[in-house]
Amino acid sequence: MTPDPITFMTRVEHDPLGEYPVPTDAYYGVQTARAVENFPISGLRAHPDLVTATVLIKKAAARANVELRRLDSRVGEAIVKAADEILNGALRDQFIVDVYQAGAGTSHNMNVNEVLANRGSELLGGARGEYRLVHPNDHVNMGQSTNDVFPSATRLALLLGHAPLVEAARALAASLQRKAADFASVLKVGRTHLQDAVPMTLGQEFGGYAACIDRGADDVATAAEQLKELNLGATAVGTGLNAGEDFTARTVTHLAESIGIGVVPAVNRFRVTQSMGDVLAYSGAMRRLAIELGKVASDLRLLSMGPRAGLSEIALPAVQPGSSIMPGKVNPSVPEMVNQVCFQVVGCDTTVCMAAEAGQLELNVMMPVIAWNSLHASTIMRNAMHALKVRTVDGITADATRARELLERSTALATALSPYIGYEKTAEIAKESVATGRPIRTLVLERGLLEATELDRILSVDAMTSPGIAGEKR
Which domain holds residue 10? Predict the structure, then answer.
């Protein structure tokens, strides 16, 4: 007789709600299986860094519990070995709970507990699903609650991605600064309100871009310091029931040693258990960086607009054909991608903001969506900045001739005359120049307002790109 396929492919586990089938070859267990059935929402899974961070916490906790003689050393060693396997890339397909899950991240925490318990049991000679040798709650989750594991894992995961994020921003800023040096002598018209403004150099413009990205990176670096306070040992509400100060100190010390980041026990565990404000601050700093980045990307698109009917003061590297119908068309594809990423980062931050406000009393149950959005924002912005640097900024070239042509056609040159002939006369000359197309210099000389040599000195473009009164002897 052929066995029932469902029975043949599953094992039966039980939890406080009763028995439930789990795939025979799965390393996760009954609570994970229930979560998969309960939350078939997005198809999105836990961010890899969140899995890593949670496994690191379980490893550190097992070591602390063995040292405190609360956990049998053989069991603790099995948990540590199982954790190391996952940290080295094994069993990553076993973390299957949807991002949108029960509040606080209990399903994610149990997913990790069950995988470690089942793999730990195997290492000790047991079978998956027995939990006789290693239990997900009694052993892997010893001294912990989802309410201190998940916020700590979120902070830790953001810290794991923090250095690469800041590094990508600094590298992009450095590339922009190199272009600023390359373009230091390229004279052009500045623009405000998308209208002609006073002269500047392309190098000055790019130097401003570099400083904007650097300042955004500074904000992210500053905000990261708040993430180093972990509420491990707070357990359910912050009191530390079933944990203790010795557990907290040892666990956090092991974590700091394993990741090389100076994480510390929270000064006030109740604050860190109640509030996701520190993650919100980090998300806000990423939003600021995204806004700065998006503005730079938009400006690169504007400055390269053309190549015949636009500004075309710079040329971006061609990375792919730009049209399926217009042969030879090349688009600013990478900056366009960056703009889309920046929009998404702002959306992620809005979600984090709303979810951070939605906590009640001793816990914020919206942590899963906070974790996913903040980690997603960090990942895509890091990758976008790297792509922008390598595929666009490093290869930008300037068209100095085109930039000078547009500058000399601009009536904004007249601004330098105001200290000498007054605002009203300057405005009259600029207006006439626009109406007739005649050069400003010619109109000033015809009216006898200034001598030719003095006028040449005042209208020197080089003088107008430096601080002070144009033409003034210094």
Answer: 5-142
